[in-house]
Amino acid sequence: MKKILAIVLLSLLIFCSCNKTEEQYVTDSQETTEIDIDTMSEREIVCWATIIRYNGANYVSAYEIAPEIGAELGTVEYNIPEYYENDMEIPKGSNSATFTPVGEKIYECEGYSPDFRICAKITDYDEPLIFTRSYTLDGELPVFRETIPNSNQIKKLTYCDAKDNVLCEIENKKYYIDTLWTCFEWSEYVPYENMKSYAKQNSIKIEYTDGSTSYIPVFEGGYANFIDYILIPDEFFELIEEVMAGKSIAGRYEMVDWADVICYNGRYYDNIYSDVAPVAGEKLGEVEYSIVEHYEKGEEAPADGISATFTKVGTNVYACKGYSPEFRICARGISSFNIYETRVAGDISMAELLPSAEQIRKIIAEKWNSDIYEYELFGCIENAEHIKKLHSLLTEITHSNGLTDEPHNMYKITLEYIDGTKTDFIAYDHGYGHFMGHAIIPKEFFDALEKALNASVS
Question: What are the tens digits of pLDDT across the range 163-177?
Answer without folding.
Answer: 889 999 999 888 788
